[in-house]
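Anyone able to model this chain together with 4'-deoxy-4'-aminopyridoxal-5'-phosphate?
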Amino acid sequence: MFDPNIIKKDFPILNRTVRNGKPLVYLDSAATSQKPQAVIDSIVEYYTQHNANVHRGIHALGDESTRMFYAARNTIAKFFSADTNELILMRNTTEAINAVVYMWAEDHVSVGDVILTTEMEHHSNLVPWQVFAKRKGCSIEYVRVTESGELDMADLKKKLRKGVKLVAMSHVSNTLGVMNPVAEISKLAHVVGTLVLVDGAQSAPHLPIDFHKLGCDFFAFSGHKMVGPMGIGGLLVRAEVFKHMHPFLYGGGMINEVSLDTTTFADVPDAYIAGTPDVASTVGLAAACNYLSKLGMEQVVKHDAELVSYALNQLKKISQLHIVGPMDARKRCGSVAFIYDGVHAHDVAQILDSEGIAVRSGHHCTMPLHAKFKWGATTRASFNVYTTKEDIDVLIRGIQKVKEVFGK
Ligand code: PMP
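re: yes, here you go
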């Protein structure tokens, strides 16, 4: 049975107290999730028992480390129902998106072409395209976000046409909490010959992802948001698209043979691992995937839906709050952000912090979205497998404290 109170015990940091002995209530999982003991142990075990560089050297540790690295890569790919040769390990979502610029877009997008993205994107899926478009002389267009905080599908259909080389969009918005219909959009895009890049930073931790069923061409994710370590994530690439890409890092580890004149390269995906990989974090991410798989992603998503629905219902009772994003919990995932009427988000977060509650305040790397709606800043509570309804009750009591302090 999925019980977040039992799951909490797997995460040692959640035992901590902060701010003069207040029990930690961690509601900042969209920024980064906490790590279960199983993930921490896997990293400690790797460094205490197996550490050696991969591929190189015929010795016991090198052999163990290489086997662990490959096994971990298989586990991670399988978690997304993808093939191992569709996974390129990356440091995080940001690196994965930038890699698409260098590995694919450089060769396939040119003057006059269009990159289509959305008004709700995290800067990590916006700035790389803006800079690329300026450099290449192609244009960038944005699909509108509606007043209720959803992707305007009519606007998307209007803008998606021949000449649009890529749709780059988030699966789940880290500010609006809204889920975007990426499977449907991938189908529409492929009809006009457009590839699709999905920023899965906020969906991978909560939704069961089947890369092939999603139908997109690129799927970027960060391990640290899905109870895995920092510094490891990945880019899933449809096998057919791999044929039209090239690595953007060259050097040791990714070659077959090198002469002074020329080089032949390793097969995909090894050709995309230049230099020494972060083996310990890869092993840690595989442990995170195993941990989530053991909980069952169907249970994880159900738990998340209950939390989002509960949080929305409790927060909307507070008249001073304006919740951003759709009010229908079924359209959302992972987080709820809000504005406290007349009190700056940083003040709200500071008062909550004094009660031991960790939330995020600011623009959450979605400045254009905040500017569009003239929000200034928002406060975001975000969840993961260890979040309980009681945590949300503590948040609600913390918000009452804001009322007391500011008298409004
Ligand atoms: N996209 C979205 C939707 C995100 O929420 C985040 C992290 N806040 C990122 C991209 C970037 O993730 P990372 O910092 O791990 O690269």
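The chain has two domains: 4-30+296-406, 41-294.
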